[in-house]
Design the sequence.
């Protein structure tokens, strides 16, 4: 697919497909507040393999990801400023839980009838306690809502964290 951002080029590593909601979601990485974009899945499938270009829709900024703390900046002087940049995103098989990875933390959020993607990422992020992982850039959620995280480093561990109930807000 060839995609265009409506507000200029972006660096993005986080993408999730919501088959139930018929959309692809992309979260920018290097903006001071990451930007959430959407593309209808049926449009993507219609033009896949063609030379057609599609324009993403900007849904809004994500303001809920905490900025690096002074302690994080001092502990990680070279890369601490990047700890809040999104590096991966996933959706549970039942379409109810979003997993979000940054260089510094993992999060989950519940989608629902009254909570779309923008609302879930802005008002429902719950931090998942994970140990420090250099280059944390992978997150996935299985059918039992277990959250898996790892890094891009060779020999990296695959860590699993059982998600809490779907009713958690």
Sequence:
């Amino acid at each position: 697919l060839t995609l265009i951002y409506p507000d200029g080029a972006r660096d993005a590593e986080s993408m999730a497909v919501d088959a139930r909601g018929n959309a692809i979601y992309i979260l920018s990485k290097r903006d001071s507040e990451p930007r959430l974009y959407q593309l209808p899945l049926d449009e993507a499938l219609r033009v896949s393999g063609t030379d057609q270009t599609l324009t993403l829709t900007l849904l809004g900024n994500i303001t809920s990801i905490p900025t690096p703390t002074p302690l994080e900046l001092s502990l990680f002087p070279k890369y601490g400023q990047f700890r809040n940049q999104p590096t991966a995103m996933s959706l549970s098989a039942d379409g109810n839980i979003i997993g979000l990875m940054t260089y510094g933390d993992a999060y989950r959020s519940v989608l629902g009838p009254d909570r779309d993607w923008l609302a879930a990422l802005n008002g429902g992020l719950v931090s998942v306690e994970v140990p420090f992982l250099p280059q944390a850039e992978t997150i996935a959620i299985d059918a039992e809502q277990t959250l898996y995280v790892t890094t891009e480093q060779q020999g990296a561990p695959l860590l699993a964290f059982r998600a809490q109930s779907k009713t958690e807000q």
